[in-house]
Every structure is written in structure tokens, then in C-alpha cells.
Amino acid sequence: MLTEVSATRYITPLREGGSLPGLVEADDLGTYVMKFTGAGQGRRTLVAEVISGELSRRLGLRVPRLAVLDLDPAVGRAEPDEEVQALLHASPGPNLGMDYLPGSLGFDPLAYAVTPEEAGRVVWFDALVNNVDRSWRNPNMLVWHGELWLIDHGATLTWQHNWPSVANAAGRPYDASDHALAPCRPDLRTAAGELAPLVTADLLAEVVALVPDAWLTADDETADPATLRARHAELLLARAALVSGNITVGEPTPVRRPAPPGWLVAPAPRRAGEDR
Ligand SMILES: Nc1ncnc2c1ncn2[C@@H]1O[C@H](COP(=O)(O)OP(=O)(O)OP(=O)(O)O)[C@@H](O)[C@H]1O
Ligand SMILES: [Mg+2]
């Protein structure tokens, strides 16, 4: 079971996130980033957050603690933004909470070095869950207390949006050329040797059991929660056996800082005798 807490105060929207996550306080005195069941991305993104987030934690990667955060929309009554109000009113009951990492910074490859070993583990894991949202444009990683933390696993397990196509998903290749850690020369061979044996049927059963039933009963869902959990676990088990040979990194996109504005660039020193 994930920890269950109740939201007591809606603090502010986090403007960076496409799904309009909010910062909330809860009755355990924790501060959480809250992701809403009523967001346009739908409940399946929360299913992906739990399965991928908890799986990556069990593979030794750093992910902030997750919780089920019960919401009474009245806790946000002081929030003036109508879009936020609509989101809160569309999301009563269990939502997703993630421990807020105060003072964390968005990952910047020019400011924080990741070893090939760590990069390999992250890329291998992202390939396993088919994460399509950890590119250099939107790294979805934070640096906190000098360490790398993974966030935002909503865009993983993409096959759940089209279960009839699932037959091909286990062997589907993963192109990591755009991955935020591609320039770190990820050591995929070592990562595969370490991580693939850890992805067992027992581990996956433990992870899929953490998803609340309420998120597995979307209106357009055609199967019951137990069947959906079993599908996720079976697919990840099959994919773990195949994915190591199906990852391409290619030529990493070079990381460049945007050129500084002209007024910031010091003029070149004039040589003696040069015309004014
Ligand atoms: N646990 C956390 N601690 C501190 N800041 C966080 C945390 N989770 C998210 N954030 C901040 O909020 C932003 C949005 O979060 P997140 O990426 O999870 O939302 P999203 O709506 O799924 O975003 P998108 O789909 O646009 O990438 C992050 O880029 C980060 O700046
Ligand atoms: Mg994000």
C-alpha cells in the first residue's frame, strides 16, 4: 500500500507542468506535489506514475516518495485561478502525491555530471517502461542534495492507451537518441546486467498492487482492475527479457547553451593602430 494522507491546504499551482500539478500540504504535515485525476491526461497517467515510479525505486533509482492524497476540493477554495478550481472540482477523492523536494533544481547537463553507469541505469529503465518524456527538452529529473532524482513518469507504459496493440509492445525498440542522458555515454551493458535480473514476476506483482482501484476504472476501460494489473505485470516481465537488445542511443544531440545576448558580450580589444 502507498501511504494514504489527506490534503489540508492547496498552496499554489506549479506552473511548469503541463498537467497543472499543485503544491499541497497534507495531514501528515508533509508537502506534496499533487497530480490530479481530473487532469486532461487522465487517470492512466497516474497508473503509470505509480507503476514506473515504484519499479524504478525498487531498481535502486532515486524517486521522491509517492502517496495517495485524498482531496476535498474545498481545501482550495481560496485559489483564485478558475482553471485550478475546475481541476480541483474534477478531482475529488484519491489523487497522486509526490514528496516535494524543496530547493531542488531542474537537471542541467552542463551543471551536473552524471556517470556513464548512472546514465545507463536511467536509460535502461526508461527503455523498459518506454518513457517518452525524458528528453533534453524536458528532462523530468531534479538535482537535490547533490543527487539525481527522477520525476514525472506519466508518459510511460504507453501501451496502456491501446491494449489491443500490446502484442508488439514487449519487443518494441526504444530510441534513446533524444534522451536527456544520451550525452553522458550511458553504460547500457552494465545496467542491463544489473537491472534485468531484478525485474521478476514477484517484484512486478508487488508494484502493480500499489495502484488504487479507482485509477484502474476509467470510463473507457474495458477490463477490471485485476486484469489490468496482470496485463501490466506480464508485459513488463516480457519486456525486461527483450529490451536490452532493443535500445539505440545513436549520436547524442550536442548540448549547447543559447548564445548570450549581444549587449552581454564584451567587445574584442582593439589592436594598436586599428581604425576607430
Ligand atoms: N517532487 C518534486 N519536488 C520539487 N519540484 C517538483 C517535484 N515534482 C515536480 N516538480 C516541479 O514541477 C514541474 C512539473 O512537474 P511534472 O513534470 O511532474 O508535471 P507534468 O504536468 O507531468 O509536466 P510535463 O508533462 O509538462 O512534463 C517539474 O518540472 C519540477 O519543476
Ligand atoms: Mg514534467
UniProtKB/TrEMBL annotation:
InterPro entries linked to this entry: HipA_2 (IPR046748)
Residue ranges of the region described as Disordered: 252-276
All residue ranges annotated as the HipA-like kinase domain in the record: 13-240
Protein name, per record: HipA-like kinase domain-containing protein
